[in-house]
Amino acid sequence: GENVEQHPSTLSVQEGDSAVIKCTYSDSASNYFPWYKQELGKGPQLIIDIRSNVGEKKDQRIAVTLNKTAKHFSLHITETQPEDSAVYFCAAIPYSGNTPLVFGKGTRLSVIA
Amino acid sequence: DSGVTQTPKHLITATGQRVTLRCSPRSGDLSVYWYQQSLDQGLQFLIQYYNGEERAKGNILERFSAQQFPDLHSELNLSSLELGDSALYFCASSVPLGHQNTGELFFGEGSRLTVL
User: Fold this and answer.
1) Would the CB atoms of A101 and B45 count as touching at under 8 Å?
2) How far apart are CA A79 and CA A63, in angstroms?
3) Distance between CA atoms of B89 and B113, rounded to whole angstroms?
4) I need a surface site. Which of A6, A43, A53, B81 has the fewest CB within 10 A?
């Protein structure tokens, strides 16, 4: 089955700096890679996703890149703000309609004002 | 607000006891997923139901069971509780009736279980 590794487990950045979180996956059949953000006391919420036919996707200050050959994908947050502080999870799935997501262990991002 | 409702939000119980966690999915969503979040363990998939039937099983202990009812709400039953079962249990839903699955999961706010 799929195994997703996520690094780093914790990350502290100064407000305005960039943050990068990296994930690797094991199943070459995986073709859907979402990122979820979990704020304190809340459930995870999808912030961006990418499918295997795309190498990069951007949405305002966040972007995701995918390298299928190396089986890794990354989340990039630019111009970080205090409200970006949260736990971020990457996930992968061999997209077949109803296969459950396999999540990484999460990265706790702290943005220091 | 994701539209997924979980009750109770907090639960404290003793070892050996049994508890039931309840989840109401977003209106019309057919799939319900249960995940366990322990400290430093991320989100561990437990079980998935689709329109009342079990669809996929993850690392769910034999002491745990779940079901999805005709109105699509789901319950996760945890029995013979141990200290190590203390965790946040999340329910998520997906697949609106009549819509193609986009892959997005909508999570509830979780039920925090503490076993003393």
Assistant:
1) yes
2) 12
3) 7
4) A53
Cα dist from A74 to A58, A66, A77, A105, B65, whole Å:
12, 7, 10, 14, 35
- Please identify which residue in the block is written with the tokens 């590794």: A5
> With contact defined as beta carbons under 8 Å apart, do B47 and B34 qualify?
yes
- CB contacts, 8 Å: A32 with chain B: 103
Examine the pLDDT at A97 and tell me if it is beyond 60.
no
SS3 of A55-102: CEEEECCEEEEEECCCCEEEEEECCCCHHHCEEEEEEEECCCCCCCCE
More confident residue, B104 or A79: A79
Residue B11 DSSP SS3: strand
In chain B, residues with a C-beta closer than 8 Å to the C-beta of A105 are 40-42
Contact flag A105-B42 (C-beta cutoff 8 Å)? yes
Amino acid (1-letter code) at residue A85: S
